[in-house]
Each structure stands twice: as structure tokens, then as C-alpha cells.
């Protein structure tokens, strides 16, 4: 057994993890663990932009962080904690300019200022961008910064366990894929920035690495999860591929067209049209499909995203990546043909329960980015706020960890990490010894059940069916085996370990969806179609019980200055 010790361990090499590492590495021994090379983290897939009230667009001259906060809270269907939202929106301009000063190549207006485009649910054009590659340029900028500052990076390492003993975090157990070695990593503070859980669903814009295993590990270690029933479906996934067609397509003026040739968003959001919040647009598209006003394709039913009227010059300048993806993957040039789209799972509003400083109830354990629920997105995230959240709260997490380390004399217990590593060794031996169930089959059935029963529209009966299916699948998981005994580069083995955590995540989503008897944001219960602030203006909190089931309790939403009201767009 190999043992290593660092002051701080950061798990996840995306924007949140890298920004935290940059903020801590000058003062502490920081190790960043990523199951892929950091520049392959899912942050790179973000296309459209990052929100900040800069006021650079001629139509946003009187924009402000307060107006950004209001749009965010309204978009969240008033479930976001308003104190956390205010922090994020106040910090937004500073972090965007910081990234600019570190070399991020934002698109520019003719006067040289950072370009800003309209996005859904926003009262002003405040989304800063770099064509349709914003996540790509932000991630590479932060990675280069981290490397220049000497952050120790462990690429292609899979964390298998979060080590918690006596309500204190002692580090993690990780698997070095290259060498096939299990490593006990002790730390005074640990940050999870592990991303979302998109691959719990069958149709998702998320990369294959987005299993939600970090969320599941935290939950298994006794850390509560928050608001897991709120799952965002992006309106425009490319049919047959689930590749994201960025909201910037609609921000630049794209239309959504049904089979009758109608811009149907006029029925659902007559003022905002295609730039209504994502929950509204996704439900509208799904309704058009369910009611038969859609197009047919061997890969499924779809709606058209029409960019042709934008012209080749604008598409090539503002949406070059989208054009290339459409040509390469489905042989359609959006300059000449509409894009066939359908809603796909996209984002996790819920996650590890943290406060506005990224701290959890476990001493020395922090979380930031999509795996965390601060909560700044509530029941529905606005486009452009995810990239913002990662960088703002990655920065805040670094400051919070610094305060924690400066005020505590905590030393990690090596025995706790070794005990956890021993449990992982036993699990690996059992998987390698082999049962006859295959991970990919169980994962496929889990994802299908989640997409079928806990999708855009759901009912209590649907959620119960999902829970019943999961019970059967978990029983079958006891007989999972892997085909190769090799421990080096054995992704099948890692997938089998991650699937165990995915079951936990899916179960909490379905349980939360069953118990929340209202419709709010991305949680649309057709048997309870109205929002119910009297009973449900509350966060759902899930804690693992001894029987493997989540214990659900609820916490009031923090309201500061924006009283809940009906959302109209």
C-alpha cells in the first residue's frame, strides 16, 4: 500500500478544481487528482459563455450585479439561496477580468471590450464568450496558470473513497490507473470538484466521465446531498448524438420550429420566445413532440433549430464549433439546413450540501462546482451561470480552505485512510473474482429507467417505478464481475466501482422527485402541476441511512431581497 500526504487534495481537474488549486498552491502543498487529463475535463465542453454584468453590450449599459442576481433567482423558480446568489453575481465581473488578465481570449466588440450576447432568462445581454468555445479557452487558461505555479497533478487517477472519521475528513483513496496501484492520500483539507451526474441518464449532453461518483462518494461517507431531484434538461441536443447545441445558437437569433412551421415558443413564453429559461423551453419542446407537432427520424422525434437566416458570415464567426459539429456528426450544414434537436439531460442543480463558503458539515471537507449545491441555481440554472459558478466558488473554496487550515491544528489520521483502502482492496478482489453480471448492462438499464421515469415530466407513480427498478438492479449488482484481472488501465473495473455510487445518486434523485409534490423549475410533476411555496419553498436534504436508503428532511430557502412571485416570460 502506497501512502502520500499533502496539505490539500483537490479531486477534479475542471474549472472549479483548477481555480481552487491556483488560489492555494503558493501557500500550501496542493495535489490535484483528475480521472482524465485536466484539459479533458467536462468544463471544456461548455460552449456559450460566462455571465457577468459588465455593461459592454449597447443594450446592457445599465446592467448591474443586482439585476443579474434577480434574473438568477427568478430563473431558479425562487429556490436559490439569495445570499449565495448575491455573492456570485457581485464577484462575476472581477473573475471575468481576472481570467482576461491571465490570458483568456474572449471575443471582442469593435471598441476592444469583452463581447456579450443574450442568453435565456436574462434581462440584459451579459454573457461573455469566446465564439462557441468559451469553456475550452477558460479551462486551458486556468490549466496553464496551475502548471506555471507548480500544482502537483495526478492525471488518470480514479478516487474510490472519501475518508471520513469522527466527522473529519482525512483524505481519499485513489487508484493509479497507469500503474494499477491503490494509493492512500492523506490531507488536512479535501475539496471535491468532481462535476455532475449526467451519465445516470440515457440521453445526456455530458461526457462519459460525468458519472456523479464524487457526489456518491461524499454521500456514502455521510455527507448530505441537497436538491437532487432538480435535473436540468437542455432544450437543444443534436439528435442521435446528444451533443450540446449551445444556447448561444438562440442567443444569436436562432428559431425553434415545429412540423407545422411555427415558432411555437410564442405559445409558451410570448415575450422571451426562444430565450426563455431552459426548463420552460425544454418542456415546450417536449410538449410539441408529445402532441405530435414534430418531425420523425429513425433516431427519434425532433424539433428544428433554424439558424439559416443568420447567414454564413455570422454563423462562421459566432458559432463555428456548432457548424463543424453538425457537418461532422450528421452531415448537415446549419448555413443551409435546420438542425434536428431534442431535449437531453444536461446539468445537476443538486449536489453535495455546502454553505456559501463551500464548506460541508464534515470538518476539512469542501465542495465546489457542479458536484456541489451552494445553492445558486435552485430549481433551474440559467445558461452562462455554470461557468461563472465554477470559477467564483473555486476561488471562494480556496479562501475558505485557507481560513480553515490557518485556524486548525488538524492532522489527518493515516489509519483511517488505510482502513478505507483495505475496504477498496476487498471490493476490487470481489469484482475481479467475477460474477456474471456486466457493468455496462446494469448501467444501461439504470440510465433507461431514469430517462423513462424521472425525466422532463414525472409523476409520483413514475418515481416509484424508478425506485423499484433500482432495487432490482442493485440486487443484481451484487453479482457484477469484470473480465480482466489486470489492475493497470482497467476501465471496466473503475466503471464497476463507479456504478455503485451511481445507484446511490439515482436513488436520491428518484426519492426526492417522489416526495416533492409540486412543480418547480426543472421538477415538473404532472400530478402536481402548480408551484407550492407554502409547503415546498424548501431545500430537500438527503442523508444515507443504515439500510442504504436516503433519509429526507427539508431546510428553508434563504430569502434576502427578492420575494417569490410567479414567473412570466
SSE blueprint and pairings:
Elements: E1 2-11, H1 15-24, E2 30-34, E3 50-51, H2 65-75, H3 82-101, E4 116-117, E5 127-128, H4 134-148, E6 152-155, E7 157-165, E8 168-176, E9 181-192, H5 213-220, E10 225-226, E11 231-238, H6 248-251, E12 255-257, H7 265-268, H8 278-290, E13 303-306, H9 312-318, H10 320-330, E14 339-348, E15 351-353, E16 365-367, E17 372-373, H11 385-407, H12 414-433, H13 439-453, E18 457-458, H14 460-477, H15 491-515, E19 524-525, H16 533-536, E20 538-544, E21 550-556
Helix pairs in contact: 1-4, 1-11, 2-3, 3-11, 5-15, 9-10, 13-14, 13-15, 14-15
Distance linking N and C termini: 58 Å
- CATH homologous superfamily identity of the domain at 416-556: Fumarate reductase/succinate dehydrogenase flavoprotein-like, C-terminal domain
The residue fraction in helices comes out at: 25-40%
What are the segments in which pLDDT stays under 50 over at least 5 consecutive residues?
none
| Name of the CATH first level of the domain at 416-556 | Mainly Alpha
Q: Specify the number of helices.
A: 16
CATH architecture of the domain at 416-556: Up-down Bundle
In terms of structural class, how would the helical and strand content be classed? Answer: alpha/beta
For the sheet with most strands, the description reads:
7 strands, mixed
Number of strands: 21
What percent strand?
A: 15-25%
CATH fold annotation of the domain at 416-556:
Methane Monooxygenase Hydroxylase, Chain G, domain 1
Question: What's the overall geometry?
Answer: globular
Rg result = 22 Å
- Mean pLDDT comes to 96
Amino acid at each position: 500500500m502506497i501512502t502520500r500526504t499533502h496539505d490539500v487534495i483537490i479531486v477534479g481537474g475542471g474549472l472549479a478544481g483548477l481555480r481552487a488549486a491556483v488560489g492555494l498552491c503558493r501557500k500550501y502543498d496542493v495535489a490535484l487528482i483528475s480521472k482524465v487529463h485536466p484539459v479533458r475535463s467536462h468544463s471544456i465542453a461548455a460552449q456559450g459563455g460566462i455571465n457577468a454584468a459588465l455593461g459592454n453590450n449597447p443594450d446592457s449599459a445599465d446592467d448591474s450585479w443586482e439585476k443579474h442576481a434577480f434574473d438568477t433567482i427568478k430563473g431558479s423558480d425562487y429556490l436559490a439561496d439569495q445570499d449565495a446568489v448575491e455573492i456570485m453575481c457581485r464577484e462575476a465581473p472581477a473573475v471575468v477580468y481576472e481570467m482576461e488578465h491571465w490570458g483568456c481570449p474572449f471575443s471582442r466588440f469593435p471598441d476592444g471590450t469583452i463581447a456579450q450576447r443574450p442568453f435565456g432568462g436574462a434581462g440584459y445581454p451579459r454573457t461573455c464568450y469566446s465564439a462557441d468555445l468559451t469553456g475550452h479557452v477558460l479551462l486551458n487558461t486556468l490549466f496553464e496558470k496551475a502548471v506555471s505555479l507548480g500544482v502537483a497533478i495526478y492525471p488518470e487517477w480514479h478516487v474510490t473513497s472519501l475518508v471520513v472519521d469522527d466527522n473529519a475528513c482525512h483524505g481519499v483513496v485513489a487508484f493509479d490507473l497507469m500503474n494499477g496501484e491503490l494509493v492512500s492520500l492523506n490531507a488536512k483539507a479535501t475539496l471535491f470538484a468532481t462535476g455532475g451526474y449526467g451519465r445516470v441518464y440515457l440521453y445526456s449532453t455530458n461526457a462519459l466521465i460525468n458519472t456523479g461518483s464524487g457526489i456518491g462518494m461524499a454521500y456514502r461517507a455521510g455527507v448530505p446531498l441537497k436538491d437532487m431531484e432538480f435535473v436540468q434538461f437542455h432544450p437543444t441536443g443534436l439528435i442521435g448524438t446528444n451533443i450540446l447545441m449551445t444556447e448561444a445558437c438562440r442567443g444569436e437569433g436562432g428559431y425553434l420550429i415545429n412540423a407545422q412551421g411555427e415558432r411555437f415558443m410564442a405559445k409558451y413564453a410570448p415575450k422571451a420566445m426562444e430565450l426563455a429559461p431552459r426548463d420552460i423551453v425544454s418542456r415546450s419542446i417536449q410538449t410539441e413532440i408529445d402532441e405530435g407537432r414534430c418531425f420523425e427520424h429513425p433516431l427519434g422525434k425532433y424539433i428544428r433549430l433554424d439558424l439559416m437566416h443568420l447567414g454564413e458570415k455570422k454563423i462562421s464567426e459566432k458559432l463555428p464549433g456548432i457548424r463543424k459539429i453538425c457537418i461532422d456528426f450528421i452531415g448537415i450544414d446549419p448555413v443551409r439546413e435546420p438542425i434536428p434537436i431534442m431535449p437531453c439531460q444536461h446539468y445537476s442543480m443538486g449536489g453535495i450540501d455546502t454553505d456559501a463558503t463551500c464548506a460541508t458539515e464534515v470538518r476539512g471537507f469542501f465542495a465546489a462546482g457542479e458536484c456541489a449545491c451552494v445553492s445558486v441555481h435552485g430549481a433551474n440554472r440559467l445558461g452562462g451561470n455554470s461557468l461563472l459558478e465554477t470559477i467564483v466558488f473555486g476561488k471562494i473554496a480556496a479562501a475558505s480552505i485557507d481560513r480553515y487550515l490557518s485556524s486548525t491544528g488538524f492532522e489527518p489520521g493515516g489509519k483511517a485512510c488505510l482502513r478505507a483502502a483495505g475496504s477498496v482492496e476487498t471490493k476490487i478482489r470481489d469484482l475481479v473474482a467475477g460474477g456474471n453480471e456486466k457493468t455496462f448492462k446494469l448501467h444501461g438499464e439504470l440510465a433507461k429507467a431514469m430517462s423513462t421515469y424521472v425525466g422532463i415530466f414525472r409523476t409520483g407513480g413514475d418515481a416509484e417505478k424508478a425506485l423499484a427498478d433500482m432495487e432490482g438492479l442493485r440486487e443484481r449488482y451484487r453479482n457484477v464481475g469484470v473480465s480482466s484481472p489486470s489492475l493497470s488501465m482497467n476501465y471496466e473495473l473503475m466503471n464497476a466501482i463507479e456504478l455503485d455510487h451511481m445507484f446511490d445518486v439515482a436513488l436520491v434523485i428518484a426519492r426526492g422527485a417522489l416526495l416533492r409534490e409540486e412543480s418547480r423549475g426543472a421538477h415538473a410533476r404532472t400530478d402536481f402541476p402548480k408551484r407550492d411555496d407554502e409547503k415546498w419553498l424548501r431545500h430537500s436534504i438527503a442523508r444515507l441511512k443504515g439500510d442504504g436508503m436516503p433519509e429526507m428532511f427539508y431546510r428553508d430557502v434563504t430569502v434576502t431581497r427578492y420575494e417569490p412571485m410567479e414567473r412570466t416570460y
